[in-house]
Task: inverse folding
C-alpha cells in the first residue's frame, strides 16, 4: 500500500513570496491533516479535513495560510506572503476512520521550507 | 486532551530493552494513550496505542498502570535504527476534531 505522498520535499523562498505544498493521502482515507513542525519542537496541527470539509482550522494563521481539498482526495497548503518564522517542516497525514472515531494517522515525509 | 510528561533524552545499549516512561496524571476515562516516533528527517510513525490493558504488537509493548496515570513503552531488543524521538500522546475518543497534540518527546539514542 502506498503511503502519504508530499511534494516538493524541499523549498527555499524569500520572505514575502508565496509557496504551495501538495499532499496525496493514502487511498480511501477520508481524513487529512496538515501539521507544522518547527525545528526542535513536536508537530503542531494546522488544519484537519473530513473529505472536502474543514473539521478544525483553529490553529491555522488565516491571514497568510490557506488550504483546500476540493475533491476530497489531494490537498494543497499555501502560504502567502511567507515570513521568516514560517521556516519549518510541513507534514501531511491521513487516517481511515470517519469523524467520531479514533483512527491511526499515517504521516508523509514532509516538505522542508526555508524562508530567507 | 490530557498533558503528558516525558524525559528529554535517554540512552540504551543495542540489543537491550528500551523502556520509555510517560506521565499522564490528568488522563480521563475515555482518553487513549498513543505512541509515535520520528526518525531524523522523516514523518512521525505510529507505534502502538492502548486504553487500559497492556498491548503488544510487532514493534513494541505498552504497559499502562492500573490508575492509568502513567505508561511505559518497551522496545524489547533495541537496534541502532530505533534511535528517534518518541512521542507519548493522549487522545480523546469523543469524536470531532482529533488532531494529535505532540509535546517535545523523548530523544532515544541507541548506543552500539
Result:
Amino acid at each position: 500500500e502506498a503511503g502519504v505522498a508530499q511534494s516538493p520535499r524541499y523549498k527555499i523562498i524569500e520572505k514575502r513570496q508565496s509557496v504551495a505544498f501538495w499532499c496525496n493521502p493514502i487511498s480511501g482515507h477520508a481524513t487529512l491533516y496538515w501539521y507544522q513542525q518547527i525545528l526542535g519542537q513536536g508537530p503542531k496541527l494546522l488544519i484537519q479535513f473530513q473529505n472536502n470539509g474543514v473539521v478544525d482550522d483553529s490553529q491555522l494563521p488565516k491571514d497568510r495560510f490557506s488550504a483546500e481539498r476540493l475533491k476530497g482526495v489531494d490537498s494543497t497548503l499555501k502560504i502567502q506572503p511567507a515570513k521568516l518564522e514560517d521556516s519549518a517542516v510541513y507534514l501531511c497525514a491521513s487516517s481511515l476512520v470517519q469523524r467520531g472515531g479514533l483512527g491511526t494517522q499515517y504521516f508523509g515525509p514532509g516538505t522542508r521550507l526555508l524562508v530567507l | 486532551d490530557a498533558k503528558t510528561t516525558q524525559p528529554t533524552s535517554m540512552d540504551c545499549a543495542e540489543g537491550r530493552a528500551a523502556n520509555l516512561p510517560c506521565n499522564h496524571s490528568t488522563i480521563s476515562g475515555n482518553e487513549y494513550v498513543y505512541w509515535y516516533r520520528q526518525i531524523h528527517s522523516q514523518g512521525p510513525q505510529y507505534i502502538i496505542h492502548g486504553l487500559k490493558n497492556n498491548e503488544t504488537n510487532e514493534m513494541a509493548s505498552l504497559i499502562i498502570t492500573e490508575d492509568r496515570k502513567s505508561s511505559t513503552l518497551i522496545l524489547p531488543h533495541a537496534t541502532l535504527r530505533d534511535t528517534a524521538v518518541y512521542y507519548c500522546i493522549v487522545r480523546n475518543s469523543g469524536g470531532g476534531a482529533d488532531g494529535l497534540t505532540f509535546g517535545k518527546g523523548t530523544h532515544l539514542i541507541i548506543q552500539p
User: Anything to note?
Assistant: The interface with chain A takes residues 32, 41-46, 49, 85, 87, 91, 93, 95-105 of chain B (CB under 8 Å).
